[in-house]
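It would be a great kindness if you could assist me with a short task in structural biology. The matter concerns a single protein, recorded as an amino acid sequence and a row of backbone structure tokens. Kindly check, if you would, that the fold set down in the tokens agrees with what the sequence suggests. Thank you for your consideration; the sequence and its tokens are set out here:
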Amino acid sequence: MYNKTIRACYLGSFIMAVVCNLSPLLYVTFMAEFGITFEQVGRLTLLNFFTQIITSLSFSKPTDNHGIRPFVTLAHLLVFVGFLIMAFSRQIFASNPYIGLMVATVVFSIGAGLFELLLNIIILAIPSDAKESATSLLHSFYAWGFIVTVVVTTALIRVLGRANWPLIILIWSILPLVNFFNFMRVPLAPQVSEQQRTPLATLLTSRSFILIILGIAVGGATEVSMSQWTSTFAESTLGLSKEIGDLVGLCLFALLLGSARAIFGAWKGKFPLLEAMGGGALICVFCYLVAALSPWPLASLIACILCGLGSGLLWPGSVVNGANHFPLAGASLFALLAAGGNVGSALGPYLIGLTADIAPTLVKVAPWLAGLSEQEAALRSGMLVGTIFPILMVVLIWRMKRVNGR
């Protein structure tokens, strides 16, 4: 009965990857065409993250009151409109196209925030004994979308030329429009009624909930920090071009990220969730340490890529863990989880970049790295500090198991 609904959610997760990753692939083009600075394109990324956080928190109550369908269709419409505004920013905002880029980013980021809130709710509301599997598969489509966005956009830029970037955005805008009509028709499972719903105060005073929120924050930091810096790491340590760095570093990371989620989903709950997350977090600790401290640049790059395998379950596993503990919490649970994950995703990469700036020689205390230049050591130093994220994840999972009496 709900097969079309599940497919629409998977496509929605794919579209969310397009929303979050298409604009950054065009930042260099925007800087050249509009004469904007690194700070201004960085502002677009901050705008994206914080708009998603505010959206997730703002729409939880309206979603509980008015249902899912009005907002999930609105999400797709906003992404479509946001892409249109960005594509035609030169014409609509002729005096200052950068304002158009900011307006477009806010519009499609509201859509992305609604995706983050609603897709998990829809999947977990469908009657099934394999909710862990379904959620893991849902999040795997974000990884596939990430890969396809990088590969297809890179290919389109090469074929059409950078000057035709508005056409590239218009091509991608077809996807949210198609899925808008999908969600107009597909059946949606009933949500938790207001009388049954767990009060927000109960969530906020629960030790389990606090551990889960902290877990999704450090899980998001672990995943996004490595995914954001892997391409730069490939360029700075191996001297690869940006295109090759994106295709080798980013795409292989995302491939392993999606594979971990798809494989766990295919197991259909045969392996305990917390044990799988704990094992993944330990892999990430190892990968961060090797990336930071290996004397062989290629080994460091491979560690960055393998971190995708370890971090694959940290975010979706936290969502399922929250839903298992608080099955009657309604949209407020997913709003807080989305906000927690996005806060970690914003602060994690920032901490690594900040460390690279203020303590670039940190790893040179290791005798075998003493000969590195400051530029070569900077990002490794950030990675070393970033090891704190998966270490905290291991500790939090251990505490969750103690709280659960395991």
Q: What stands out?
A: The domain at 1-179 is CATH 1.20.1250.20 (Growth Hormone; Chain: A;).
